[in-house]
Write a structure and sequence with these properties.
A: about 170 residues; alpha+beta; 6 helices; B: alpha/beta; FAD/NAD(P)-binding domain; seven-stranded mixed sheet; 19 strands; about 30% helix
């Protein structure tokens, strides 16, 4: 149960996942926001009209997968760091998962990182192919990570290699 | 005789509610004095590094310290606002004079209206050895790290999975400190689940229905024993775990900081949904002592976004009662009230709404 562990269940994820067909067409946002809280920056971030305006600010976001082009603006705006972009069209066998990242050190392009699931479990070692800064004000980085197709809907974090200041 | 400082509106507390109240009142033309006991205004905002929720009207998407900087700048740019830092309000007297201690002097202020925006203080829980060095309140950990740039230790046990426990855990992880676990006595996570999920997927366990039974260590904390709680919140024998940690951080809730309201003889009421004794007040946040308003956590513990809106509402109401902006004040008040309703409309705001209904209910015990 999400509200006991912090881990979204398979059923939770199913509710916000696009179809296999849509995934294969190219980059698309997955909004893993499962609790009604007063928050709407994603609706204003989306310039494609894919994230529909909320009647009530407590509503869950609603994404039109066909309008979403996977630009990733919402990913870097979401205060909850709950939006990911999946591109299953990357190659026949691999997909790219874009994740928000706010730790140090920030991985560099071509670094190998340990991918983690929603439960923080290790999924393997994967390559970072692009790193984008959120800019001076936003500050949230976006990491592009290449994974085998079957992990595109599983990888959501990386193991932290942060410096241990307190040693 | 020391000189008495005259001002139209005195605001006690320079956090999100107080600063929002100051600029709202000054924008309508009132002269405002803010007392802030810390060396810098901004309250808890200056320690918040995460992006805030809410809507654009409450600066959603900006990080807490950025919002703090903005509020400080708004007050700094307004010639009608004066801020006295390192100044602590001491008492509000029958004749309306407020005394304060600041710059090693005993100060007297004679305001026409008062807005109390003193915030909240952290709760403590009891367990053996809870006085060992290495046991901190979450606010202290944030002050150490985000104001002074000092990490509190290497490995932390966080107690409490409300928003503060989750956010401070995340900040510790960002500073390179390991979180052994976040434990929560309640059966479910109290804070926003998006905060919980981002910590969980980085590998930190969140253990609901768990509590601390004792801390141990010679000179300072060396570890903690935690255990499971059953449905009746009783320890499950045999479920004990020993966690080697050098810091135990308590994020077990806040209480409204209401001493000034009690002392000023505002009618008070205990409302558990608002986290303690809070002053009875009307829709525009005026208490039962005419001319004394409240805003932010002192009137019921909530989020900073609603504290800012409450501050604005109290500032407008106090200024309007002095004759400023009488033409536009009703519209501004209605806008602020609509924003508050919007913020509290979802499941997360139901507790606050129940608390306010309870508070406004004329029946029940008041003191």
């Amino acid at each position: 149960m999400l509200n006991k562990t912090g881990i979204p269940t398979a059923e939770d994820v199913k509710k916000v996942a696009p179809s296999e067909d849509r995934l294969k067409k190219g980059p698309v946002a997955i909004i893993e926001c499962f609790q009604e809280i007063p928050c709407n920056p994603c609706t204003e971030a989306c310039k494609q009209g894919a994230i529909q305006p909320m009647e009530d600010i407590n509503n869950l976001p609603r994404l039109d997968f066909d309008k979403c082009n996977g630009c990733g603006v919402c990913l870097s705006r979401c205060p909850g760091l709950a939006i990911f972009i999946v591109d299953a069209s990357y190659s026949d066998t691999e997909a790219v998962v874009r994740i928000p990242f706010e730790y140090l050190p920030v991985p560099q392009v071509s670094d190998k990182v340990v991918g983690l699931s929603r439960a923080g479990e290790e999924l393997g070692v994967f390559e970072v192919i692009k790193v984008q800064s959120g800019g001076r004000k936003n500050k949230t980085y976006t990491l592009w990570i290449v994974v085998p197709n079957n992990l595109a809907m599983d990888l959501r974090s990386i193991r932290l290699g942060g410096v241990r200041h307190a040693n | 005789m020391p000189k008495v400082k005259e001002t139209e509106i005195l605001i006690v507390g320079g956090g999100p509610a107080g600063l929002s109240a100051a600029s709202a009142a000054a924008n309508l033309g009132a002269s405002v004095l803010v007392l802030e006991r810390d060396e810098k205004p901004g309250g808890q905002l200056i320690k918040q590094t995460h992006k805030f929720f809410g809507s654009k009207k409450q600066y959603a998407g900006d990080r807490g310290y950025q919002i703090g900087d903005l509020l400080i700048e708004q007050c700094g740019n307004n010639p009608k606002v004066e801020v006295w830092t390192n100044t602590t309000a001491l008492g509000i007297y029958e004749d309306g004079v407020v005394t304060a201690e600041g710059r090693a002097k005993h100060l007297k202020i004679n305001p026409k209206k008062i807005i109390v925006a003193t915030g909240a203080s952290e709760k403590m829980i009891t367990f053996p050895n809870n006085d060992l060095p290495g046991i901190y309140g979450a606010g202290a950990v944030q002050t150490l790290m985000n104001v002074h740039g000092i990490v509190p230790g290497r490995r932390v046990l966080m107690i409490g999975a409300g928003n503060i426990g989750l956010i401070v855990s995340y900040q510790l992880m960002q500073a390179g400190v390991e979180i052994a676990a976040i434990i929560e006595a309640a059966p479910t996570i109290g804070g926003y689940l998006v905060h919980a999920s981002k910590i969980r997927r980085a590998g930190v366990p969140i253990l609901t229905s768990h509590t601390i039974t004792e801390a141990y260590g010679n000179e300072s904390v060396e570890g903690a024993i935690i255990c499971k709680l059953d449905e009746g919140w009783q320890p499950v024998s045999g479920s004990e775990q020993d966690l080697k940690v050098d810091v135990i951080c308590l994020a077990v809730g806040l209480s409204p900081l209401t001493e000034l309201c009690f002392q000023a003889d505002c009618q008070m009421k205990y409302v558990s949904e608002l986290s303690g004794h809070v002053p009875v007040r009307n829709e525009h946040l005026e208490t039962t002592r005419p001319g004394l308003y409240v805003a932010g956590d002192v009137s019921g513990v909530e989020e900073a976004s609603s504290a800012m809106v409450e501050g604005r509402l109290a500032g407008i109401s106090a200024a309007c009662s002095l004759g400023y902006g009488e033409d536009i004040a009703p519209k501004l008040q209605a806008e602020a009230l609509a924003e508050l309703s919007e913020l509290r409309a979802g499941p997360a705001g139901q507790k606050t709404l129940r608390g306010i209904m309870n508070l406004m209910d004329k029946g029940g015990a008041v003191c």
